[in-house]
């Protein structure tokens, strides 16, 4: 009596799993990249909010520091947006 089950190559893997694995092969480390972009964008937003509160309280905020925070927020926010899932499923 034989217990081994033989499958054809087309039945060897679930189609949903195959699609997910192919997507991961096309965009490796996507989850980690998005987490890094989110953390860096949040850091820029917190820095910008801190500078806005300092400016509102009357403390002089250097414009170079303000531009760095605005640039960081816009750069990492853009990278997060560009790294989104573009499939319509």
Number of helices: 3
Tell me, briefly, the overall form.
rod-shaped
Beta-strand residue percentage: under 5%
- Which percent range fits the helix content? 55-70%
Q: N-to-C SSE series?
A: HHH
End-to-end C-alpha gap: 45 Å
Write the layout of secondary structure elements.
Layout: H1 15-26, H2 30-56, H3 63-82
Keyphrases for this structure?
89 residues, mainly alpha
Q: What can you see in these coordinates?
A:
The protein is mostly helical and 89 residues long. It has a domain at 28-89. Helix content is 66%, strand content 0%. The chain has three helices and no strands. The protein has helices at residues 15-26, 30-56, 63-82. The mean pLDDT is 86.
Question: How would you summarize what this structure contains?
Answer:
The protein is built from three helices and no strands. By secondary structure, the chain is mainly α. The radius of gyration is 23 Å and the shape is rod-shaped.
